[in-house]
């Protein structure tokens, strides 16, 4: 499916610029098709084809795009790995994936090697080092076979295409598998399969994120010129919105907050902006109201998950204040949603239970994890792990999460994973991490620490420094509370909700 869209985009849009790199060089739709075809032949000569699994541990550059396209053209499964992960986390994802080939940079490969213990088996069969390009003709230069292209694949709706990683309740990575069947459904649900007419756009997420991996077919079909950044920066986004008269601001909720907080915001012209589309975290009502007023645009809330293929619920463009400020809207076209009790029975309006979704965009299952798949996909429905309730008007309202996971800046944080690292700090006797609401990031982690020495407890800076070599920065706590102990339940387990309430009150 993806190879056909790439080819069709090349024929429709030709030499129109498809992507602008963070350094300013460009690639056209035709060049993207040709470069990925040449790289696909190079992959085939390395034995990569249908049934192969290849991990991309690359920054979100045009190199990543060409590699993903090339892998799709030979029928391989692409596992995107977030480059923001620390080496320990990256190795954990590779351990789940067990790829035939890893495409990465020399710098990342060296860090991965340093992280591997002497007794640990390498989960990767082969590593191919990529030198990031500085021009279109240098993309994957050591892999491409000039002038060649692979034979078209036979149609197969169940061919594996993409693995998008999330984490379980213990922080162990899980790969959500998507086939041609899901990618076709996602394009149809998002755009009706229509082709666009160009314009400009900004890439808001890492390419390893479900928001890109499963949606690239319809992004290509839009015919837009997409601008990339080395790292998302509010100032640069504001410049691009102003310069190219971009009609939609898309991103995770903290990005919207950072745009509004930028000191130069009021110096730009946003009259072209018609809609703000935000997801991956809760949108505080005050943020929604400010964004609508200052951008002069409607604010669309999107609720989804990695497992749902990035398709779920949303608020309507003409929604009233109550819907936009206090709900996640209604199921999008083609999506069914229900709030159910612990036994999987639908609950009446007003009662809180787990949110279940059903749509053709849902993942096929977790890669190499049938137990987790059986727990999450039940009778054609997806258990989201989120708590919600419905109103009589059909609106859905989130009420928290079944598990302890919280979302910081659009990224999932699992306390047990963070605690396992912080608990090795020499000054820590015990540590529990709970979320605290934050106006920019949605939620941040608070480390409640029982110190070994109350006269000399660890501080936040020291705790973060201790954890930064093992955890991505967004997982590290951003506040610390020194406590003498924790509230516990009858089984002597820490009562996290009570602790969180105590810290919020304190």
Tell me what the structure shows.
The strands form six sheets. The protein has a seven-stranded mixed sheet, with helices on both faces. With 506 residues, it is α/β, with parallel strands linked by helices. The N and C termini lie far apart (54 Å). The chain is 31% helix and 25% strand. Helix 2 (29-45) crosses helix 3. It folds into three domains: 2-231, Rossmann fold; 304-401, Luciferase, Domain 3 (Luciferase, domain 3); 407-505, 2-Layer Sandwich (GMP Synthetase, Chain A, domain 3), CATH 3.30.300.30. It contains 16 helices and 26 strands.
Short overview:
This protein is an alpha/beta fold. The strands form six sheets. The protein has a seven-stranded mixed beta sheet with strand order 6-5-3-4-7-8-18, sandwiched between helices. A five-stranded mixed beta sheet has the order 11-12-13-14-15.
Task: Give a quick set of tags describing it.
single chain, alpha/beta, Rossmann fold, Luciferase, domain 3, GMP Synthetase, Chain A, domain 3, seven-stranded mixed sheet, 16 helices
Terminal CA distance reads 54 Å
Portion of residues in beta strands equals 15-25%
**Inertia-based shape:** globular
Structural class: alpha/beta
What's the arrangement of secondary structure elements?
Elements: H1 2-13, E1 17-20, E2 26-28, H2 29-45, E3 53-57, H3 62-74, E4 77-80, H4 87-97, E5 101-104, H5 106-115, E6 127-129, E7 160-167, E8 173-179, H6 180-191, E9 200-202, H7 210-213, H8 216-221, E10 225-227, H9 234-244, E11 248-252, H10 253-261, E12 275-279, H11 285-295, E13 298-303, E14 313-314, H12 321-326, E15 330-331, E16 336-340, E17 353-358, E18 365-366, H13 370-376, E19 377-378, E20 381-390, E21 396-401, E22 406-408, E23 411-413, H14 415-422, E24 428-438, E25 442-451, H15 460-467, E26 479-482, H16 496-505
Helix pairs in contact: 1-2, 2-3, 4-5
């Amino acid at each position: 499916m993806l190879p056909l869209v790439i080819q069709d985009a090349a024929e429709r849009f030709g030499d129109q610029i498809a992507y602008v790199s963070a350094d300013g060089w460009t690639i056209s739709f035709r060049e993207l098709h040709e470069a990925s075809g040449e790289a696909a032949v190079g992959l085939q000569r390395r034995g990569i084809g249908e049934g192969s699994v290849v991990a991309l541990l690359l920054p979100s550059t045009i190199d990543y795009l060409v590699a993903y396209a090339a892998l799709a053209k030979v029928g391989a499964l692409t596992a995107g790995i977030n480059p923001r992960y620390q080496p320990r986390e990256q190795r954990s994802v590779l351990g789940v994936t067990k790829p035939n080939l890893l495409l990465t940079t020399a710098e990342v490969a060296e860090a991965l090697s340093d992280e591997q213990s002497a007794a640990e088996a390498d989960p990767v069969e082969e590593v191919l080092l990529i030198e990031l390009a500085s021009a279109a003709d240098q993309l994957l230069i050591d892999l491409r076979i000039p002038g060649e292209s692979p034979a078209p694949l036979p149609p197969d709706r169940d061919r594996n295409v993409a693995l998008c990683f999330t984490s379980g309740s213990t922080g162990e990575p899980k790969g959500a598998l998507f086939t041609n069947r899901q990618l076709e459904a996602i394009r149809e649900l998002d755009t009706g399969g229509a082709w666009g007419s160009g314009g400009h756009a900004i890439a808001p997420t890492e390419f390893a994120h479900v928001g890109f991996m499963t949606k690239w077919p319809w992004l290509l079909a839009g015919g837009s010129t997409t601008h990339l950044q080395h790292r998302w920066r509010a100032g640069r986004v504001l410049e691009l919105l102003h310069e190219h008269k971009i009609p939609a601001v898309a991103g995770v909720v903290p990005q919207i907050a950072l745009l509004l907080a930028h000191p130069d915001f009021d110096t730009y012209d946003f009259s072209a902006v018609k809609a703000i589309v935000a997801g991956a975290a809760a949108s505080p009502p005050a943020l929604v109201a400010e964004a609508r007023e200052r951008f002069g645009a409607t604010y669309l809330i999107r609720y989804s998950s990695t497992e749902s293929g990035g398709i779920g619920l949303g608020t309507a463009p003409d929604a009233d204040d109550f819907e936009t400020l206090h709900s996640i809207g209604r199921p999008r076209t083609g999506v069914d949603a229900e709030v159910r009790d612990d036994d999987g029975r639908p609950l009446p309006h007003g009662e809180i239970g787990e949110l279940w979704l059903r749509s053709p965009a849902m993942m096929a299952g977790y890669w190499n994890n049938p137990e987790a798949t059986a727990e999450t996909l039940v009778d054609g429905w997806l258990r989201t792990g989120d708590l919600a309730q419905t109103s009589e008007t059909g609106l859905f309202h989130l009420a928290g999460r079944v598990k302890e996971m919280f979302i910081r800046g659009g990224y999932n944080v699992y306390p047990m994973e963070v605690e396992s690292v912080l608990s090795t700090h020499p000054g820590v006797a015990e540590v529990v991490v709970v979320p605290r609401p934050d106006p920019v990031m949605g939620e941040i982690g608070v480390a409640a620490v029982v110190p070994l020495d109350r006269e000399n407890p660890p501080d936040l800076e020291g705790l973060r420094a201790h954890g930064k070599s093992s955890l991505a920065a967004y997982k590290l706590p951003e506040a610390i509370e020194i406590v003498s102990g924790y509230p516990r339940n009858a089984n002597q387990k820490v009562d996290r909700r009570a602790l969180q309430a105590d810290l919020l009150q304190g």
